[in-house]
Amino acid sequence: MTKAEIKKLGDGPLTLRGLIVYNEKVFLPMLEKKFAGKKEFNKFRKEMLGFKKEMLGFKGEMKGFKGEMIEFKGDMLEFKAKMEDFAIEMIRFKTKTEKTQNILLTNMDTVLKKLDILLGEKKVQDFQDDKRKKMCKLMVGAAAKHKVITPGQVGQINRWEVL
Fold it and tell me: Has this prediction a pTM greater than 0.70?
């Protein structure tokens, strides 16, 4: 509608025919520019349906992912429980090892004390053996010199390696 026609309508009384013409030429095209028409709405609706399908697929993926995460969480909780059991076993093992170590050290101390006693006794015994040998040599030598024993007996004593 041209400005002249609009002015012409504005000059006279509003008729039904003038309102129809105004709506067709001015008002409805202006509304189509401001608001979505049926075609645009249907196009938008199709796009939203496609988006909805994509989101439903995504939702399914997320449910699958959530299931995997729940399973993973269960596995981790099971692993945590096993690790706690392992830690308890390690503490028991450590305690047992410490007890065993204490027993071994105590036994080693006992053995070393007894060994010290035996070594001391051995020294005394070796000293006494040396004294006996010297004394026996003197006695055998004196007995041979004073002819208390025969030279054959002296040889016999020497073969025994007692002295």
Answer: no
**DSSP per residue, 41-84:** HHHHHHHHHHHHHHHHHHHHHHHHHHHHHHHHHHHHHHHHHHHH
d(C-alpha 157, C-alpha 163), whole Å: 8
- The residue type of 36 is A
Which residues constitute the domain of residue 93? Answer: 36-159
In a domain, 27, yes or no: no
Q: 130 lies in a domain?
A: yes
pLDDT of 57 reads 93
When pLDDT is averaged across residues 68-88 and rounded to a whole number, the result is: 97
Instruction: Indicate the angle between helix axes 151-159 and 38-145, nearest 10 degrees.
Output: 180
